[in-house]
Amino acid sequence: MVEEPKEPGKDQKPAPIDAHLLEILVCPRTKTSLVYDEVRQELISRAAHLAFPIRDGIPIMLEEEARALDDEELRALTRR
Predict the structure, then answer these.
(1) pTM for the predicted model, two decimal places
(2) Which terminus of the chain, N or C, has less C-beta within 10 A?
(3) Distance between CA 71 and CA 74 in Å, rounded?
(4) In this structure, are residues 60 and 42 in contact, taking their beta carbons and an 8 Å threshold?
(5) Domains of the chain: which residue ranges?
(6) What is the mean pLDDT of the chain?
C-alpha cells in the first residue's frame, strides 16, 4: 500500500513569532502597533482594519497581501 504524501504544515504547529520582532513591527499603512493572532497566523492592524499573513514564521507586511477585516472581526478583537 502506498501512502499519500501529506500536505506540508497540516500536522505541524505554526512556527512561533519572535517576541522582539512583534515589538518592533508596525502597520505599514498607519505605523501603529499590531496584534498577533496565533490561531489564524496573522498580524492585525486595528487602525487600518487589515490582517497581514504570517507564512512559515515570516510576517508578510505588504498591503496587497493583507486581508481586510470586517466590522464583526474588529468588534471581536476589542473583546480580547
Answers:
(1) 0.78
(2) N
(3) 5
(4) no
(5) 19-78
(6) 86
* pLDDT tens by residue, 4-42: 444 445 566 777 788 899 999 999 999 999 999 999 999
CA angle 76, 25, 70 (to 5 degrees): 25
Q: What is the CATH number of domain 19-78?
A: 2.20.25.10
- Check if the beta carbon of residue 69 is closer than 8 Å to that of residue 44: yes
- All 3 cell numbers of residue 38? 496565533
Q: What's the rounded Cα separation, in Å, for the pair 3 and 51?
A: 36
How many C-beta atoms surround the C-beta of residue 32 within 10 A? 11
Using an 8 Å Cβ cutoff, are 14 and 22 in contact? Answer: no
Amino acid, res. 55: R
